[in-house]
Amino acid sequence: MPNPALNRHLLIEMCSRCELQVANTFFAKGDDRTATYTDIGYEATSVISPTSHAEIDLFLVPRRHFNDCVNVESDRNVALKSHHFIVVANFRIQLARIKKQELKPHLDIKSLGDDRVRQSFVHTLEQKIDVHMSMHQNEDIDNKVNVFTELLRNTAEETLPEIKARAQRPWISARTLHYIDERTAARHTGDKHT
Q1: Is 150 left (phi over 0), alpha (psi -120 to 50) or beta?
Q2: Where are the alpha helices (DSSP H) in the chain?
Q3: CB-count exposure of residue 169 (10 Å: 0-12, 13-18, 19+)
Q4: Nearest 5 degrees, angle CA 97-CA 103-CA 104?
Q5: Crossing angle, helix 141-159 and helix 115-135, to 10 degrees?
Q6: Backbone phi and psi for residue 49, each to the nearest 5 degrees, phi listed first
Q7: Is 97 exposed, middle or buried (0-12, 13-18, 19+ CB in 10 A)?
């Protein structure tokens, strides 16, 4: 009976407790894609045999994501200064779409230089502060700061004009695309001077 203190023999128990599965052995691969280690005295590209190579580097996957794992294999051709090989795993994961947040409009703060806009802003802000203070006289300072910030933002949105967004220019011009197409065509025909 193997000594249970050895880490290799505790793997099954750990996987069971942590709800993990070894993914390496679930894919039909040749020895050149399953070996993850070469013994001292052998080259990584040596002929694979039980005395020269082993599969000791395991890819553990949570059980709930095991079906998302579509491939696991080692790559002996990657040059590492180690007797271990790179183990690559491919997963098929469906990510939730990120909902686009509605962008708040950019406000023209410079318009406060106009007397009419400034007076409207100040008058509206004073009214909002007076209304709030009459209903919340014994408020702590932290809450007052938060409320004032919100009142300032709301007043700006109500009284300041929005900055009109400029149309975005294409990242590359049609003329440049034309030159790229010409150069690509010239390369395919063997014209190295273009």
Answers
A1: alpha
A2: 7-18, 31-34, 115-135, 141-159, 174-189
A3: exposed
A4: 155
A5: 140
A6: -145, 165
A7: exposed
Residues 78-115: pLDDT tens digits?
Answer: 767 788 888 899 999 888 887 777 767 788 888 889 99
Tell me the per-residue pLDDT of 112-126, one tens digit each, with 9 for 90 and over. Answer: 899 999 999 999 999
Q: Torsion angle of alpha carbons 72, 74, 80, 83, nearest 10°? A: 120
What is the C-alpha to C-alpha distance for residues 102 and 61, in angstroms, rounded to an integer?
Answer: 38
Distances (CA, A) of 73 to 7, 20, 34, 55, 121: 23, 18, 6, 11, 66
User: In 3D, which of 169, 153, 167, 168 has the Cα closest to residue 107?
Assistant: 153
Whether the predicted model's global pTM rises above the 0.90 cut: no
How far is residue 67's CA from residue 61's CA, in Å, rounded to a whole number?
A: 9
Q: Which of 101, 76, 12 is nearest to 4 (CA)?
A: 12
Q: State which amino acid sits at residue 183.
A: R
Tokens of 8: 């290799």
Tens of pLDDT along 2-25? 454 567 668 888 888 999 999 887
